[in-house]
């Protein structure tokens, strides 16, 4: 099965912040985990269509308030064995409306923080390996952590190009 996630970015005082959700505790998959907004691709949808649909369903951000900046890494989830494709999305006018049946919290984390902390390798009970970031007691692990680790440099390049594009716009 195919799954997609948006790696949403908002700029606060000209600094990029990643938007994370904490998935609702009652969900059947990845309950209570810190993740990016996303989900399964439905029949007839492209990956990008599914990503924008999930972004709006989970945190209330419509496609017309975003800029798709590029494709990031893909990974396979350990337990549910889903292939997850990530997309970098810049949210132009942040206003969040959480779907409380799927999302219990929202976190903003400075992208630059990930330059200063490491993705620590962990061994799962199954014997598989993954990594995790721990930020002020919040644990970001598994597929979400691997996407950050594997895409961090590409995210910075794409965002630098986006910032250049913004500064070239008339009236800015």
From TrEMBL:
Keywords per UniProt: Hydrolase, Magnesium, Manganese, Metal-binding
User: CDD domains from the entry?
Assistant: NUDIX_CoAse_Nudt7
Give a Pfam family name.
NUDIX
One Gene Ontology term of the molecular function aspect = coenzyme A diphosphatase activity
Ranges for domain Nudix hydrolase come to 5-77
Cofactor(s) demanded: Mn(2+); Mg(2+)
Its recorded name reads: NUDIX hydrolase
Organism the protein comes from: Pseudothermotoga hypogea DSM 11164 = NBRC 106472
